[in-house]
């Protein structure tokens, strides 16, 4: 019977199976960062356990790192957390891209960049956006700290077989519509828990035509639709991206490529559920609420209570709009912003920076707006500087920063003040996410750039940048 | 971890859907390198006013729920970030059981690993209501039941996780018993 990529990767990694028990799955790559790992390493020490496969583990510092001046870590607790990671990696022999290392960056940006991420692999990390790596046809999902400890000691995890879901994006994306708009539209249409209990495979023409960076943006936010993992079958685009990457041996490339492509879902394979969205119903998106499903197209309005039938949804809308200080029915284009953040594991790659730079080139950041660009990795930063993008941003009035997670979750000093509004290319608009009382609107890099220039949400398609 | 078997307690009713882990424990408290002491930060943004005083309107600050070991909430509880600090903070605060119509996958797993019983119950709204009325609930993992206000509801749980919780097993020690299978897998795949 024809199989999906999900079943193929799963079956390939079963170490042990027994009825009425989860499967014991082998983990090919364990990515580690400073926030969710210290208690796991401590657990190993307390029980005198070792790391089974340090060679299949890779660590970096991203959540806490300062993006202004690497030498100044104001919060001693942040500093301790990063030092603890360095000590743990040294003690257990795990490779680490520390804050000053040329491979440093957001864990989900550097995995693909280095070629550690490959089709058919099982990849885990103590971070819910691990689904990003699914763009390559890897089965990649976020885990908690207890599971981090389990993987460190055994290189395996007990996992119940997930249900499979296909999300098909049919047709071609319209002019000025990006991967970020696609995933925000999917989450808005199907809801924040549509994918709970499933692994999602994204299919359809619109997905096939996307670059690897765009596919990463889509898979990255699978968790915002409730799915621990979201992936895309590998193809020529995938293999081409991985050519000449540091962890892809050049002399084995052809052999690897053949193996990678063999994981693709077979014609006629059946999913437990299929959801479809048409590309032509998607326009540039802006979230107005406090979870990623609360979003609308740029030409739409903030909904009203009458748009919902369930009382719990009406109540949720009321709470969200109170927090966001917006009124029912107001046009999205009337929302004024004070901050712009271009960055995060969703949108901080070179293509994202190019898209934003194209919009702001020759323009100025609005006088009411503070705008920052935080490249996803040191490598992205270097590449952008080579292309002169840093200058485009700086000339427009953006701050050009060092790489890290930064204002996506504001664990370092990059915080949106209470009551202020941010157009952000990140993935979560939860209450307080970018700072206590801060109001987050999720958008694509192009839409964030447009908002930076005009001081409010503006349809980037009307800004004459794509002529 | 401590085994979970049965308990009777008042029910703290958190009548909201899609409660995310950023609300359960905000990021500024994730910098600690210990597993303990997170209860003081639970629902920080909702529990406390900007000046650090308790927000009297928030349900957990109501004296009736001071000693509740059961939290009842709306659908998709624990969505968002994978931070295990969320179950650590709930547990450290004193919750042993969480009842909701549905949970986010990673959060649910994290609960099991820490000996918190997360119960998926279609009738969770009725448990929330009972909590608002000051009633208690009795939870029994062995028989997989929640009893409250004269009703008894059955809940489903994966048999493997049930055994883990009932016995308070350390999963890593269990996995070490499969060392041969892991080694064989490595020999044939690497």
UniProtKB/TrEMBL annotation, chain A:
GO terms for biological process: L-leucine biosynthetic process. It comes from the Bacteria. Its cofactor is [4Fe-4S] cluster. Belongs to the aconitase/IPM isomerase family. LeuC type 1 subfamily. SUPFAM superfamilies: Aconitase iron-sulfur domain (SSF53732). The keyword 4Fe-4S applies. Catalyzes the isomerization between 2-isopropylmalate and 3-isopropylmalate, via the formation of 2-isopropylmaleate. Keywords: 4Fe-4S, Amino-acid biosynthesis, Branched-chain amino acid biosynthesis, Iron, Iron-sulfur, Isomerase, Leucine biosynthesis, Lyase, Metal-binding. It comes from Jeotgalibacillus alimentarius. NCBIfam families: leuC, PRK05478.1, PRK12466.1. Gene3D superfamilies: Aconitase, domain 3. Binds 1 [4Fe-4S] cluster per subunit. The gene is leuC. Heterodimer of LeuC and LeuD. It catalyses: citrate = D-threo-isocitrate; (2R,3S)-3-isopropylmalate = (2S)-2-isopropylmalate. Its EC number is 4.2.1.33. Residues 7-455 form the Aconitase/3-isopropylmalate dehydratase large subunit alpha/beta/alpha domain. This is 3-isopropylmalate dehydratase large subunit. One of its GO terms (molecular function) is aconitate hydratase activity. Pfam families: Aconitase. Pathway: Amino-acid biosynthesis; L-leucine biosynthesis; L-leucine from 3-methyl-2-oxobutanoate: step 2/4. [4Fe-4S] cluster binds at residues 345, 405, 408.
UniProtKB/TrEMBL annotation, chain B:
It comes from the Bacteria. The keyword Amino-acid biosynthesis applies. One of its GO terms (cellular component) is 3-isopropylmalate dehydratase complex. SUPFAM superfamilies: LeuD/IlvD-like. CDD domains: IPMI_Swivel. Its EC number is 4.2.1.33. InterPro entries: 3-IsopropMal_deHydase_ssu, Aconitase/3IPM_dehydase_swvl, AconitaseA/IPMdHydase_ssu_swvl, IPMI_Swivel, LeuD. It catalyses: (2R,3S)-3-isopropylmalate = (2S)-2-isopropylmalate. One of its GO terms (molecular function) is isomerase activity. Transmembrane segments: none annotated. Keywords: Amino-acid biosynthesis, Branched-chain amino acid biosynthesis, Isomerase, Leucine biosynthesis, Lyase. One of its GO terms (biological process) is L-leucine biosynthetic process. The keyword ATP-binding does not apply. Pathway: Amino-acid biosynthesis; L-leucine biosynthesis; L-leucine from 3-methyl-2-oxobutanoate: step 2/4. Residues 1-123 form the Aconitase A/isopropylmalate dehydratase small subunit swivel domain. Belongs to the LeuD family. LeuD type 1 subfamily. Catalyzes the isomerization between 2-isopropylmalate and 3-isopropylmalate, via the formation of 2-isopropylmaleate. NCBIfam families: leuD (TIGR00171), PRK01641.1 (NF002458). Heterodimer of LeuC and LeuD. This is 3-isopropylmalate dehydratase small subunit. It comes from Jeotgalibacillus alimentarius.
């Amino acid at each position: 019977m024809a199989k999906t990529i999900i079943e193929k990767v799963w079956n390939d990694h079963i170490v042990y199976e027994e009825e009425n028990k989860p499967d014991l799955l082998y983990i090919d790559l364990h990515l580690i960062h400073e926030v969710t790992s210290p208690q796991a390493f401590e657990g190993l020490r307390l029980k005198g356990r070792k790391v089974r496969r340090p060679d299949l583990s890779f660590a970096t510092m991203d959540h806490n790192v300062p993006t202004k001046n690497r030498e100044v870590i104001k919060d001693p607790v942040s500093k301790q957390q990063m030092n603890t990671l360095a000590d743990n990696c040294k003690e257990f022999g795990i490779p680490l891209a520390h804050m000053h290392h040329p491979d440093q960056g957001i864990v989900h940006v550097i995995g693909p960049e280095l070629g550690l991420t490959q089709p058919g692999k099982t990849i885990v990390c103590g971070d819910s956006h691990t689904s990003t790596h699914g763009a390559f046809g890897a089965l990649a999902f976020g885990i908690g700290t207890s599971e981090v400890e389990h993987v460190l000691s055994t290189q395996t995890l007990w996992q119940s077989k997930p249900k499979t879901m296909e999300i098909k994006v049919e047709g071609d994306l319209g002019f000025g519509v990006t991967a970020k708009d696609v995933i925000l539209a999917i989450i808005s249409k199907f809801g924040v828990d549509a994918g709970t209990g499933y692994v999602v495979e994204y299919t359809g023409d619109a997905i096939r035509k996307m670059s690897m960076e765009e596919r990463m943006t889509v898979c990255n936010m699978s968790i915002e639709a409730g799915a621990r993992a979201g992936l895309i079958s590998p193809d020529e685009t995938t293999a081409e991206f991985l050519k000449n990457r540091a962890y892809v041996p050049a002399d084995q490339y052809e052999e690897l490529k053949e193996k990678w492509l063999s994981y693709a879902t077979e014609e006629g394979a059946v999913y437990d559920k299929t959801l479809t969205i048409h590309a032509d119903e998607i326009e540039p998106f802006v979230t107005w609420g406090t979870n990623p499903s609360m979003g609308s197209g740029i030409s739409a309005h903030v909904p009203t209570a009458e748009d919902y039938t369930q009382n719990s949804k009406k109540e949720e809308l009321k709470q969200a709009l109170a927090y966001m200080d917006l009124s029912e029915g107001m046009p999205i284009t009337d929302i004024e912003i004070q901050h712009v953040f271009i960055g995060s594991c969703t949108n901080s790659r070179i293509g994202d920076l190019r898209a934003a730079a194209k919009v702001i080139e020759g323009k100025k950041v609005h006088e009411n707006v503070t705008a920052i660009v935080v490249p996803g990795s040191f490598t992205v930063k270097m590449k952008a500087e080579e292309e002169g993008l840093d200058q485009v941003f700086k000339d427009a009035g953006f701050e050009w920063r060092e790489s890290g997670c930064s204002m996506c979750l504001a664990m370092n000093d990059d915080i949106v003040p209470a009551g202020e509004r941010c157009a952000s290319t990140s993935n979560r608009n939860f209450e307080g996410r970018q700072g206590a009382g801060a109001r987050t609107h999720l958008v694509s890099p192009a839409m964030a750039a447009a908002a930076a220039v005009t001081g409010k949400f503006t349809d980037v398609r009307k800004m004459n940048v794509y002529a | 971890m401590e085994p979970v078997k049965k308990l009777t307690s008042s029910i703290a009713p958190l009548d909201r859907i899609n409660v995310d882990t950023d609300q359960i424990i905000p990021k500024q408290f994730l910098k600690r390198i210990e597993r303990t002491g997170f209860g003081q930060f639970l629902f920080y943004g909702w529990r406390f006013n900007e000046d650090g005083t308790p927000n009297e309107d928030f349900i957990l600050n109501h004296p009736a729920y001071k000693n509740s070991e059961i939290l009842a909430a709306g659908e998709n509880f624990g969505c968002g970030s994978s931070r295990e600090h969320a179950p650590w903070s709930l547990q450290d605060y004193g919750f042993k059981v969480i009842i909701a119509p549905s949970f986010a996958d990673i959060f649910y797993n994290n609960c099991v690993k820490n000996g918190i019983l997360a119960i998926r119950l279609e009738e969770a709204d009725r448990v929330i209501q009972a909590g608002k009325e000051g009633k208690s609930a009795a939870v029994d993992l062995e028989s997989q039941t929640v009893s409250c206000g004269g009703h008894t509801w059955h809940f489903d749980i994966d048999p493997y996780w049930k055994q883990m919780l009932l016995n308070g097993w350390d999963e890593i020690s269990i996995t070490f018993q499969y060392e041969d299978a892991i080694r064989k897998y490595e020999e044939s795949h690497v």
